[in-house]
Structures are given as C-alpha cells and as structure tokens.
C-alpha cells in the first residue's frame, strides 16, 4: 500500500513537471512566433524620434503619434504630436500618398518614410525676406504669420507676421551660435511613403 502511494505521488509529480515544461515552452514559442511584438519596438513615438532626430536624419523610420492638424490646402501635410504640443513633427505626403485623408485628424497615425532635416540659416532668412518683398512668399495657414501648427512644431514664439517670425529665428540662431558655435537651426520632418490610421 505504501508503495502504491509513493508510486502515485511520483507519477503525479512527473506529470505536473511535464505539463509545466509544456506551458513554459509554449510561452517561449508564442513570443518568437509573434512578429508584431518584435517590430513594435522599431516604431518610434514622436518624443523618441525628436530626441534621436540628428542621428536618424536621412534614414527610413516608422513613427506614430496623434494627428493634431491637416493642411487645409490639399491635405499634403499633417502634424503628429507626442506627449504634448511641444513634441510635434510635420509629416509631408510623398508621391505614393499624394494627400492625407481628413479622418487622420484626432486619431493616432503611424507613418513610414524618410526623416529629413530642414536647416534655417541667414541665407534662408534673407531669401524669405526677398520673397516677402516681391510678394512671392508661399502662403500657409489662415493669417499673416502662417501656419500655427508649423510654428508649434518648430518651437516658435507665436508671431503675428512672417517678418516677426524671421526676426525670432535670427534671435534663436544668434543664441545657438553663442552657446554651441552653430549658426543655423535644425528642424525635422518626415517624407511619408505610407500611413495608417490606428
């Protein structure tokens, strides 16, 4: 009788250990078999993207954020926000997209494309002033200063005219040159190939 109980107990322990190993190996294989978990780490949140932008310039990236604005003139641009409105990046529709759908606004949007640096230096500002004088400067937004979403994405102090924006850029360039020795400002946008509304 004692032998029967001992044999039953050992058999039970053996069976439970097999079941436990089966469950653990099943968990491991599920993690390996789920490709979305592996690729989700490659999708950058806007805050992370902006923090690494200098090192990612010119590279193909995938990022997601909340779409706060779409360009009213043809839907060629959207703005994606991260943790707050100071963490915003412009996304331009590439040739494959053409224009963004109005439904992107107020939704989480994932884009895939190339990160592009936009430099603002004195030559850029002088050219902008010339276009203002000749009245050939492109119009963005609904007022004289241009698109407020663009201004937020570039960390600008809100201006009422384009000339005021130019002067604000000059001040920021002078401050950067004094601190870092660089006589330009760098901003980034994404030239998107694909996008998905999540």
TrEMBL record:
Residue span of region Disordered: 136-162
Taxonomy, superkingdom: Bacteria
Polar residues bias locations: 148-162
Name recorded for this polypeptide: Lipoprotein
Phylogenetic placement of the source organism: Bacteria, Pseudomonadati, Bacteroidota, Bacteroidia, Bacteroidales
């Amino acid at each position: 009788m004692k032998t029967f109980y001992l044999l039953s107990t050992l058999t039970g322990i053996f069976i439970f250990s097999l079941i436990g190993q089966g469950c653990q190996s099943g968990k491991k294989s599920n993690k390996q078999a789920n490709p979305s978990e592996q690729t989700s780490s490659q999708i950058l949140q806007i805050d992370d993207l902006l923090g690494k932008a200098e090192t990612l310039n010119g590279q193909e990236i995938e990022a997601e954020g909340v779409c706060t604005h779409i360009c009213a003139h043809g839907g060629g641009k959207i703005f994606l926000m991260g943790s707050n409105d100071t963490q915003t990046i412009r996304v331009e529709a590439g040739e494959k997209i053409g224009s963004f759908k109005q439904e992107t606004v107020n939704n989480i949007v994932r884009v895939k494309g190339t990160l592009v640096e936009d430099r603002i230096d004195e030559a850029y500002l002088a050219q902008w002033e010339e276009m203002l004088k000749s009245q050939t400067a492109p119009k963005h937004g609904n007022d004289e200063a241009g698109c407020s979403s663009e201004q937020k994405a570039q960390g600008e102090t809100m201006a009422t005219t384009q000339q005021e924006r130019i002067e604000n850029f000059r001040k920021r360039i002078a401050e950067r040159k004094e601190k870092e020795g660089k006589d330009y400002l760098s901003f980034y946008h994404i030239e998107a190939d694909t996008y998905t509304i999540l």
